[in-house]
Design brief:
By secondary structure, the chain is of the alpha/beta class. It has 11 helices and 13 strands. Helix 4 packs parallel to helix 5 and helix 8 packs parallel to helix 9. The N and C termini lie far apart (47 Å). Bound molecules: iron/sulfur cluster. Iron/sulfur cluster binds next to helix 1, helix 4 and helix 8. The site of iron/sulfur cluster (SF4) has 15 residues, from helix 1, helix 4 and helix 8.
Length: 308
């Protein structure tokens, strides 16, 4: 079987930084370090950090007094920051700088008196964080139908921001519908979207032109991994999301001569290797990495850890 690996795939700079924050905190302060929410949506990553002494919680009330606390890459609402400050918890914020940028865009639009619309998925921690960061009401829209159902007058000054794990392609129809619906509308520059989301989606589109089956390595609760699988399916290629090699179903590969593999932004390369190993147990495999966009973005660590 011919295997093509999408390029780029897997870890983005925001995920690398978030994991490094937990690891460095464990080294500097010693275990345990408390992490609010899965640091990134990947069980393997979470389990590895647990083994090193991280404790994952959903609410700050579960964190004991004075314990070092990390906020996940998805960002948190202001109420969470305030609760941490009120309890005097030493906090390391692993919110991806690109998510923080979206928060700042939202705050700017609200300060200019605009009604803010967030394009994103209800219930996703990033969306909850963003809605809780901007000081004003935020209308969440998930589809063109929801744009059409908005009851605001057409001349309301509005502005939109988007969840980072949606690409330009994902949001194009919704933005077009918003622009058709409102006469006074502003939004961020198209270049402001997350580079990693766009690059991984473009790479999976390229991959879909070459292969019979696509395997996306990623967690079931990872928004960007699910989106990669959907893009493969939309391109007409049978596409499956798998956490690791143990989930590979040989039936999927029965009639495939070429298989493409990619990985969501929170999936480590070791899991891609695990999937390839599982394929080798089915039959001979020849692996090629596709040419693709090179990424050399790095985000700085929080000041408390940068010097350590
Ligand atoms: S996908 Fe983009 S926004 Fe999300 S953590 Fe990675 S770099 Fe940051």
């Amino acid at each position: 079987m011919e295997v093509y690996l999408a390029q780029p795939r897997g870890f983005c700079a925001g995920v690398v930084r978030a994991i490094e924050i937990v690891e460095r905190a464990l080294e500097k302060y010693g275990p345990p370090v408390y992490v609010r929410h899965e640091i990134v949506h990947n069980k393997y990553v979470v389990e590895s950090l647990k083994a090193k002494g991280a404790i994952f919680v959903e609410e700050l009330s579960e964190v004991p007094p004075k314990a070092v606390t990390v906020f996940s890459a998805h960002g948190v609402a202001r109420s969470v920051e305030e609760e941490a400050a009120a309890r005097d918890l030493p906090v390391l914020n692993a919110t991806c700088p690109l998510v923080t940028k979206v928060h700042n865009q939202g705050k700017r639009y609200i300060s200019k008196g605009r009604t803010l619309i967030l394009i994103g998925h209800a219930g996703h921690p990033e969306v909850e964080g963003t809605m809780g960061q901007v000081p004003g009401p935020v209308l969440l829209v998930q589809s063109v139908q929801e744009v059409n159902a908005l009851t605001l007058p057409a001349d309301t000054p509005v502005a939109y921001i988007t969840q980072t794990t949606l690409s330009v392609d994902d949001t194009r129809d919704i933005i077009t519908a918003l622009q058709a619906r409102f006469t006074d509308i502003q939004g961020p520059d198209i270049r402001d979207i997350c580079y990693a989301t766009q690059n991984r989606q473009s790479a999976v589109r390229d991959l879909s032109k070459l292969v019979d089956v696509i395997l996306v390595v990623g967690a079931a609760n990872s928004s960007n991994s699910n989106r990669l699988r959907e893009i493969g399916t939309e391109a007409g290629v049978a596409s499956y999301l798998i956490a690791d090699g143990s989930e590979l179903n040989p039936e999927w590969l029965k009639n495939a001569r070429t298989v493409g593999i990619t990985a969501g932004a929170s999936a480590p390369e070791v899991l891609v290797d695990d999937v390839i190993e599982a394929m080798r147990r089915i039959g001979p495999v020849k692996v090629q990495v596709l040419p693709g966009r090179e990424e050399n973005i790095e985000f700085r660590l929080p000041a408390q850890l940068a010097a350590s």
